[in-house]
From TrEMBL:
It comes from Pinibacter soli. PROSITE patterns: FAS1. This is Fasciclin domain-containing protein. Residues 29-43 have a biased composition (Polar residues). It holds the Pfam family Fasciclin. Residues 26-53 are annotated as: Disordered.
Length: 188
């Protein structure tokens, strides 16, 4: 019996070795000689056209949030907000940024004001998902920058800090977005 299995085993071993050492075909050869495509660092560089969009992708696809997207990019927060989260984002519209005193936004977008911009943007983000039905009048939410916002709720109407009305709620793959009509400013 051993005499029968020894040649069979040797033949199988030679077959496997021969397959692994077969000369590469042209497609394999070309694939190894071409230079790889450049990669983008961070979560924002992941290409996925199948899944639900994350909070950054939702904002980037909105004509009403181009100013917010520009600010998030200037602050270097794209990757952070593209991560798994979960996040609750209070997203001011372009019109909300337009209500700021003249020159405020331009000043915040300067490289030397990056820390102040980050503080303001992080004041618009809570860790966790707070759906509208889970929000209560007088509820206080801790924000990423260490500050707090207060929710006012009367029926279906939701306000943040008594100054910004929630205009819409949009789910995202890594959280929820509340579109608001005012920019929230952290208390000093």
């Amino acid at each position: 019996m051993k005499k029968f299995f020894a040649p069979l085993f040797a033949a199988a071993l030679l077959f496997v070795w021969g397959c692994n050492n077969a000369p590469a075909d042209k497609t394999t050869e070309q694939a190894t000689t071409t230079s790889p495509e450049p990669t983008t660092a961070g979560q924002s560089g992941v290409k996925d056209d199948q899944s639900e969009k994350n909070v950054v992708q939702v904002a980037a696809g909105s004509k009403d949030h181009t100013t917010l997207v520009k600010a998030v990019q200037a602050a270097g927060l794209v990757d952070a907000l593209s991560n798994a989260g979960p996040f609750t984002v209070f997203a001011p519209t372009n019109d909300a940024f337009g209500k700021l005193p003249a020159g405020t936004l331009d000043d915040l977008l300067k490289p030397e004001k990056k820390d102040a911009l980050i503080d303001i943007l992080q004041y618009h983000v809570s860790l966790g998902v707070y759906k509208p039905e889970a929000l209560n009048d007088g509820q206080v939410l801790g924000q990423v920058n260490g500050g707090n916002v207060t929710i006012s709720k009367k029926g279906d109407k939701i306000m943040v800090n008594g100054t910004a009305n929630v205009l819409a709620t949009i789910p995202a793959s890594n959280g929820i977005i509340y579109v608001i009509d005012g920019v929230l400013t952290p208390k000093k």
